[in-house]
From TrEMBL:
PANTHER family: BETA-ALANYL-DOPAMINE_CARCININE HYDROLASE (PTHR34180:SF1), PEPTIDASE C45 (PTHR34180). NCBIfam families: C45_proenzyme. It comes from the Bacteria. The lineage of its organism: Bacteria, Pseudomonadati, Pseudomonadota, Gammaproteobacteria, Oceanospirillales. Residues 107-337 form the Peptidase C45 hydrolase domain. This is C45 family autoproteolytic acyltransferase/hydrolase. GO terms for molecular function: acyltransferase activity. It holds the Pfam family AAT. It comes from Halomonas koreensis. InterPro entries: C45_proenzyme-like (IPR047794), Peptidase_C45 (IPR047801), Peptidase_C45_hydrolase (IPR005079). Gene3D superfamilies: 1.10.10.2120, Penicillin V Acylase, Chain A (3.60.60.10).
């Protein structure tokens, strides 16, 4: 897997993204057409209509990103509505599709790390892209996610990084769509500005954003249309899976986690405590080994095909990411971390 480097005005970045990944974007639309039908019983045309309600929210909270979305559509020779719908896919399918994902931050020996597995439908495996973006008048950033989407998991040249855990809930209100909010966080100049995306702009549907910075700060944000739940580090670490934890969030939002979420959180908490005690030396290989853990399979951190699950719930680990925010280095393993031997290492020059 390679990383594309795109720079310039937002429209230029969007057009290059759309043109280079047109085939993958089209396949992503096909995947989500099936997902919307499987999970919420609507086709792509109905999904496009559903996505229209989020346009005014983006226009209020992050209007500049619409130029990039329009560029993606032009580059891929698609309608803007298709790209808008793709970037609002979490909100459209939020009542049923929670996905997986195990994420954690850890600070040891003066270095701030972020790591996570992204678990999702296996038909999206080959539609994953790594992008290094240099937008004019905004921080340079690296994002690993799905072709045609403006952001997912990544870091920027200010030493700020973000991970994502999906939350299944029927809540949807006012705020930025999840993936648009992630991009705004990745364009933040500092940690406080990143937190304002959750506390001021707000996020229209529940999710967990794990935000960390090279200065050693890290916070779990259980976002939703109200004030987010905050999870501060314990023993230098924050971990999260796919259920709400903070009372600030649970008193406002009802979630419906799958059976594997709590066992995975218990396991990653144990691994952080046992393998990375305070004073331990940390490197990327150590963190990838934790992401490759199979304890409690099939309800494990590294997730594999499980024929005992209903077809629409068979989530698998599609990539693993480890970020050293002090070095501005992101290392990606495409596919399951227990199987993938090749790593893509991306590094940004500190701003």
């Amino acid at each position: 897997m390679q990383c594309s480097v795109l720079s310039g005005e937002r429209g230029d970045i969007g057009r290059a993204h759309g043109h280079q990944y047109a085939a993958l974007i089209t396949r992503s639309l096909e995947v989500y057409d099936r997902l919307f039908q499987d999970f919420v019983g609507i086709g792509w045309a109905e999904a496009r209509t559903a996505a229209e309600r989020f346009l005014p929210m983006i226009e209020r909270g992050f209007p500049a990103i619409l130029e990039e979305m329009d560029g993606i559509a032009r580059g891929a020779e698609l309608d803007f509505a298709d790209i808008l719908t793709l970037n609002c896919r979490s909100e459209i399918s939020l009542t049923q599709a929670s996905g997986g994902c195990t994420a954690f931050s850890v600070n040891r020996d003066g270095t701030q790390w972020l790591a996570q597995n992204w678990d999702w439908r296996s038909d999206q495996l080959h539609n994953v892209v790594a992008l290094e973006l240099h937008p004019r008048h905004a921080p340079a950033l690296v994002s690993v996610g799905e072709a045609g989407m403006v952001a997912k998991i990544g870091m920027n040249d200010r030493g700020l990084g973000v991970c994502l855990n999906a939350i299944r809930s029927r809540t949807c209100g006012e705020g930025l769509p999840i993936h648009v909010a992630l991009r705004k966080i990745l364009e933040a100049e500092d940690f406080d500005q990143a937190l304002r995306v959750a506390t001021h702009d707000r996020v229209c549907a529940p999710a967990h954003f794990l935000v960390a910075a090279a200065d050693g700060r890290a916070t779990g944000l259980e976002v939703h249309p109200g004030l987010p739940g905050l999870l501060e580090p314990r023993g230098g670490s924050v971990a999260h899976t796919n259920h709400l934890v903070a009372e600030t969030a649970t008193c406002q939002v009802e979630d419906f986690p799958r059976a594997d979420s709590r066992p995975r959180l218990s396991r990653i908490d144990r691994l952080l405590r046992d393998r990375l005690p305070l004073g331990a030396t940390v490197d990327a290989e150590t963190l990838f080994a934790m992401l490759a853990d199979h304890d409690g399979a099939p309800l494990s951190i590294c997730r594999h095909f499980n024929p005992d699950q209903p077809a629409d719930e068979r989530m698998e680990t599609l990539f693993a990411v480890v970020m050293d925010l002090n070095a501005r280095r992101l290392t990606l393993r495409h596919g399951k971390p227990c199987e993938s031997e090749d790593s893509l290492a991306l590094r940004l020059a500190p701003a």
